[in-house]
Amino acid sequence: MLFLLYLCLRITTVSLSTPLPMKINSFITIVSFIVLVSCVQHKKMTKTSEHQFTNKLINETSPYLLQHAHNPVNWYPWGQEALDKAKKENKLIIISVGYAACHWCHVMEHESFEDVEVANFMNENFVAIKVDREERPDIDQIYMDAVQLITGSGGWPLNCIALPDGRPIYGGTYFPKNQWLDVLTKISDFVKTNPEKTERQAKQLTNGIQANELNLLSTKQKDVSMADLNLIFENWKTSIDSENGGYKGAPKFPLPVGYQFLLHYNFLNPNSEALEAVTLTLDKMANGGIYDQIGGGFSRYATDERWNIPHFEKMLYDNSQLVSLYVAAYKHTKNENYKTIITETLDFIQRELTSEDGGFYASLDADSDGEEGKYYVWSQQEIQQILGDDAKLILDYYNIEANGNWENGINILFKTETDTTIAERYKYSVNELKTLVSKAKKQLLAERETRIKPALDDKIITSWNALMLKAYVDAYTIFDNKAYLDAALKAANFINTNVRSSDDRLSRSYKNSKATINGFLDDYAFTIEAFIALYQSTFDEKWLESAKKLTDYVIEHFFDPESSMFYYTSDIDQKLIVRKMEISDNVMPASNSQMAKNLFVLGQYYYDSDYVARSRQMLNTVKENTIKGGPYYSNWDILMSWFISPPYSVVILGDDFESKRHALNAQYYPNVFLSGGNKEGQLALLENKLIPGQTTIYVCQNNSCKYPVTDVNEAMKQLLVN
User: Residue 627 contacts by C-beta under 8 Å, 6 or more apart in sequence?
Assistant: First the structure.
């Protein structure tokens, strides 16, 4: 069985975990967990000449790989050179995966990979490969699955030991030095003395990795109805924390796409429970320590159930999705606090994570000056010294205590009372209170800027950039702030100029003016989504045409006709031991769920029945899993709602199209696809709809349009707003 090595070795996992959907295969049934631990990035590497050791990682661009470039371990990047060396010398491979903001990755580096004794043993007996999981999620997926099959959990650092052909035989996460040496010694001995058992272990693990959710699924046509969505929500409710928001227990991860579905569900079927689950979560996150109360932006997750104690790293993909979520919620509820969260988070993105040429950097570390969260926390005395007479109010407002509300006498800033309650206590109006708080925040931010900042991972990941691009577009739709549209357009041009080739192939990563690694399915899926959103907010058809070209590229190079799904890697990528598919949604929507939505939307714009049929077939394949999958199939659930209640195609044609488009965009219409301009353009749905001298709105559904109107309010009536 898979545990033949596990029985003689003890695994230490020191990370927090969040559940993933259940994976069942003929070999093993487990509940998989992804462990997201973070964070610390070492200081920038100095010149090679200043270091005793230099390995093959020195020529890489990944900040994470460069952090290990001067280890005494003879690290290789993933590639043919390392794999050929392992086969030629018949050595086991160590595949060690992490990322620049991963705290426990660097703990293990310091304890083991910087240790000459450990390095010598690794160099003599293994071929050691370092992998940045953000650059190579395809490799991470495979060996994470292996570790999850062995241990029932996983996380980073991920350390997997494989045969020379890449098939895994053993793995774990963080190992202290002595345990790591013990593991390596025992595995080396075991492989030498038990070749048949080793081969059996490798075969079983590889077969387990190859099996995935699709083994349980059917591609037969399935009916979908509102009853399905109702059942999905009923099953979902049991996991919702009705007191603190989010999902029950700790740690708490945002999982934004889940709340996008709940908003959509509430729109189709007004359900107070669904809307309350969303607003409670967004309110608690906005008031909690997971949100940077001084500088804006969200941390990766909260370690407690109240959202107050963050794991301080800030990731681009979290913040982009949360901006889009708060925009949707603001449209739906008109809660002005959400506007503040959106604008402050975008200010943070512009200030901390935006490159000069319009791309967006990957992340900020949690640690600074050698301590987790040091950049973000405060003592009561510091606040008093900086704010003077205004300190008392701010101490109360953010729950700052003399002995600290976290540890070692320091405080994390979070809110537990409403502005109204605090304003009444201090005999201010709410507006006066907000003015005073805003002034104090500026003072504290200025002081914080003088501290040693968290390290920046300055690589640019295409899929994450696309999510951020869309976030700016979403913000533009509600606030009509041209700066937001300009940022989105600059990011789109960055993608087209730097990571998109003439044949529509995307690259995964960009750094130091160099695009590297062939793009994965999520890079295409989110870029397509972003370009569609750009069209919907500009009516410039080049963005829609780009989305279609990228979609056709995906169909040509990623599609699996047997399952109707798309592989995560293209047919021109280097072959790994398994070619995986990404099906279930998690911290980001699954690349397959997003491609299915893209196909549906483009099918509406281009009257392309093949696109729609492909989308429907993909939904058929996962339909049974959506019922009990909760947030892990929420993007699929949104797609299901479109097949249940066909969306509207709204055409706006005429010289005054921009103001009418903005008026409609400012409303929460998750089932409306906008098009138009001051001319008919190339889209078939715009043909013969331009009326000279007036701006006309057509509300269409199922290729049939209602009577044209010129007033936005009349168009809204035709949309049958709930």
Answer: 228, 231, 232, 235
Residues facing 509 on adjacent strands:
461, 516
Q: Which residues of 249-276 are buried (b: 16+ CB within 10 A; e: fewer)?
A: ebbbbbbbbbbbbbbbbbbbeebeebbe
- The sign of the dihedral angle between the CA atoms of 208, 214, 151, 178 is positive
Q: DSSP letter at 44?
A: P
- Helix, strand, coil shares of the chain, percent, nearest 5, are 50, 15, 35
- Asked if 550 and 524 count as a contact pair (C-beta separation under 8 A), the reply is yes
Across 351-362, b (16+ Cβ under 10 Å) vs e yields: ebbbbeebbbbb
Residue 673: which of 536, 556, 473 has the closest Cα?
536
pLDDT (tens digit, 9 = 90+) per residue, 209-255?
Answer: 887 655 655 656 678 999 999 999 999 999 999 999 999 999 999 99
Q: What are the tokens at 660? A: 């009418």
Helices (H) and strands (E) in the chain, counts: 25, 23
- In three-state form (DSSP H/G/I as H, E/B as E, the rest C), the secondary structure along 514-582 is EEEEECCHHHHHHHHHHHHHHHHHHCCHHHHHHHHHHHHHHHHHHECCCCCCECCCCCCCCCCCCCCCC
CA distance 123 to 210: 30
In contact, 140 and 132? CB cutoff 8 Å? no
Q: For residues 53 and 72, is the Cβ–Cβ distance under 8 A?
A: yes
Contact between residue 508 and residue 519 where contact means Cβ atoms under 8 Å apart: yes
Residue 467 has, within 13 A of its CA and on its CB side, a CA count of 29
Closest to 241 (Cα-Cα) out of 269, 271, 273: 273
Yes or no: say if 186 and 125 are a contact pair by the CB < 8 Å rule.
Answer: no
Structure tokens at 15: 């990370």
Classify domain 6-211 by CATH number: 3.40.30.10
Classify burial at 466, counting beta carbons within 10 Å of its beta carbon; exposed 0-12, middle 13-18, buried 19 or more: buried
Give the Cα-Cα-Cα angle 650, 655, 661 (nearest 5 degrees): 35
Q: How many residues does the chain have?
A: 722
- Rounded distance between C-alpha atoms, residue 503 and residue 640, angstroms: 32
- Choose among 224, 243, 663: nearest CA to 416: 243
Cβ(565)–Cβ(636) under 8 Å? no
In angstroms and rounded to an integer, the radius of gyration of the C-alpha atoms of the chain is: 26
633, 638, 641, 643: CA torsion to nearest 10:
-90
* Rounded CA separation 333/402 (Å): 38
Q: Using an 8 Å Cβ cutoff, are 633 and 654 in contact?
A: no
Q: Note the pLDDT tens digit of each residue in 508-559.
A: 999 999 999 999 999 999 999 999 999 999 999 999 999 999 999 999 999 9
Contact at 8 Å (CB) between 368 and 375?
Answer: yes
Task: Give pTM, 2 decimals.
Answer: 0.91
Instruction: Determine the Cα–Cα distance for residues 566 and 560; give it in Å rounded to an integer.
Output: 6
Of 548, 531, 520, 541, residue with least CA distance to 495: 531
40-71 pLDDT, tens digit per residue, is 334 333 344 578 999 999 999 999 999 999 99
At which residue do the structure tokens 């392992």 appear?
Answer: 86
**Secondary structure E strands in 164-216:** 168-172
Count of beta carbons in the 10 Å neighbourhood of residue 427: 7
d(CA 408, CA 395): 17
Yes or no: say if 144 and 568 are a contact pair by the CB < 8 Å rule: no
Asked if 503 and 509 touch (Cβ cutoff 8 Å), the reply is no
For the segment 274-284, the average pLDDT, to the nearest whole number, is 98
Judge contact between 224 and 22, C-beta under 8 A.
Answer: no
Please answer whether residues 252 and 307 qualify as being in contact, where contact means their C-beta atoms are separated by less than 8 angstroms.
yes
